[in-house]
Design brief:
Structural class: alpha/beta
Helix content: 40-55%
GO biological process, one term: DNA-templated transcription
CATH architecture of the largest domain: 3-Layer(aba) Sandwich
Pfam families: HTH_1, LysR_substrate
Largest sheet: 5 strands, mixed
Strand order of the largest sheet: 4-3-5-15-6
Keywords: DNA-binding, Transcription, Transcription regulation
CATH topology of the largest domain: D-Maltodextrin-Binding Protein, domain 2
InterPro entries: LysR-type_TF_proteobact-type, LysR_HTH_N, LysR_subst-bd, WH-like_DNA-bd_sf, WH_DNA-bd_sf
Number of helices: 10
Oligomer: single chain
Number of strands: 15
Protein name: LysR family transcriptional regulator
CATH class of the largest domain: Alpha Beta
Length: about 300
Amino acid sequence: MQDDDFRQREAFLAVVRAGSFSAGARALGRDVSVVSRRIAALEKRLGIRLIERTTRRIRPTEEGQRYRQKIELADELLCEAEEEARRLAVRPAGTIRVAMPAAFGRCWVSPALPEFLQAYPDIRLWLNCSDHYVDLLGDNLDMAIRIGVMADSRLIARKLADTCRVLCVAPDYLAQHPPLLKPRDLREHDCLGFTPMHSWPEWRLVKEGQQVSVPVKTRYESDDIDTLKEAAKAGLGVLMAANWLVQKELAEGSLVTVMTDWQPAGEDGVWLVKPSSQLQSAKISALTDWLVKWFAVPRW
């Protein structure tokens, strides 16, 4: 909306409401000549006469009366929109669109949400649970949970928890295959391939500042990490996975870690990312605070 257009409409409404150019000008705190020029410019821009002028009074034309009704309705809608926005700025309400990795969402975020929705009955959640990258700005999302190293400078990121990857196998697999002591030993083993991993089909390992990339061989690949975890438990090969994913299996002994002096690269935390931290609504603040408190308790 251009400033000149707004001022022209403002002058028109002031005059027709007050019943004269002079009264309308006083209401706006402007000279009569200024108000008259603005209405003349409005009529010229629209190509139609809006006000009939006589020496004693003014009267809106039929077109002017219809125009008045329309812009007064528009003003009412704008006022309602502004009032609603002010209310939502202080009262958590409305829809929050959130993206997160599917497996992580199932394991660690979904358990936090029922209580959140009970605490905030006017909030509605829309979840995108997928291991595919989503563009918050392009896909009109309010926030996302991401795992790894943050690189998108357009986003505001807040770390929720530390995480790392581990190499693990079923105990039976380890008993029946050569030892796994050094990165090159992986070449003699079947490795379970998580195809969305950025470096796949290589595994990158770090030790005391030294990084190596190992091309691994596999008989089993998938874009679903839970499927690969079950394959690892069945003894089908070596799995590289986040500690949050295999925490239960490591605790119960159905999987064991190997090559623990080498750290798989590429993952350092769980992050909550948003397009902006400025003037965020109450609903976004509410979910942000809830997730921060939820992950403040160690989960894995």
